[in-house]
Amino acid sequence: MTIAPATDAAAKKSLVKLQRAIVDGLEDVKAVDIRVFDTTHLSPLFERVIVATGNTNRQTKALAASVRDAVRDAGFAKPRSEGEDNGEWIIIDCGTAVCHIMQPAIRQYYRLEEIWGDKPVRLKLGDAKPRSLTAPADAEPVPARKPAAKKTPAGKAPAKKTAAKKAPAVKKTAAKPVVATRKAPARKAAAPVKTVRVNEPVAKKAAVRRAAAKKAPARKAPGRKA
């Protein structure tokens, strides 16, 4: 009997296609920290658990809608969802795969990775998206076209390009250091000279005495007798 291996291969291929569709739906709305876990040894109800984070209620609801559309476009039945009224934790049941879209605080509190994360599945994010801009491998390379030469009118020689004269470089002179000078202290104004008034009668008497002394004959000193 070779029916069992064929069915197992088809089921595995279908599972890989389903998880790829879910991840593509999450990537389209910029989900954060997408993780895929193999749960075949933990539960008979589903074989894959996919966990992703949305920062706001609006983003988590948009992620849930994107996953539903991607699963239906891949040819699977419309999945069921719970928690879209609140938006903090949305569960999308796709049959053999269950997707949990959680906000950061809810994901950190419940830690589903510790429950279902024994066997993480390595999945290249964005690898299965179609590349419409790439050329097929069998296509022959197209030779690059050379630009057409410009035609010059008859009788006129092409103008020669003259090299622009280089302006002499201006030498930069080093700025002279500024020496700080100390300001001389301001001189104090000289104190006003006090004029002393002389008593006029006393001055006149002194002048008369000086004049009389000059007119009087000089007295000879008495000589000593031998």
Written overview of the protein:
The structure is a single chain. Helix 1 packs antiparallel against helix 2. This protein starts with a helix and ends in an 11-residue tail after the last helix. With 226 residues, the chain is an alpha+beta fold. Helix content is 31%, strand content 12%. The protein is built from five helices and five strands. A five-stranded mixed sheet has the order 1-2-5-4-3. It has a domain of 86 residues: Beta Polymerase, domain 2. The longest helix has 26 residues.
Major sheet: size, sense and barrel closure? 5 strands, mixed
Indicate the CATH architecture of the domain at 31-116. 2-Layer Sandwich
Under CATH, the topology of the domain at 31-116 is which?
A: Beta Polymerase, domain 2
Strand content: 5-15%
Q: How far apart, in Å, are the first and last alpha carbons?
A: 189 Å
Q: Which spans of ≥5 residues are poorly predicted at pLDDT below 50?
A: 130-143
Oligomer: single chain
Give the class from helix and strand content and strand pairing: alpha+beta
Specify the helix fraction band: 25-40%
CA radius of gyration: 56 Å
* SSE order, one letter for each helix or strand: HEEHEEEHHH
Q: Considering the protein shown, what is the CATH homologous superfamily of the domain at 31-116?
A: Beta Polymerase, domain 2
Roughly what is the average pLDDT, rounded to an integer? 75
Question: How many helix segments?
Answer: 5
CATH class of the domain at 31-116: Alpha Beta
For the largest sheet, list the strands in their spatial order.
1-2-5-4-3
Number of strands: 5
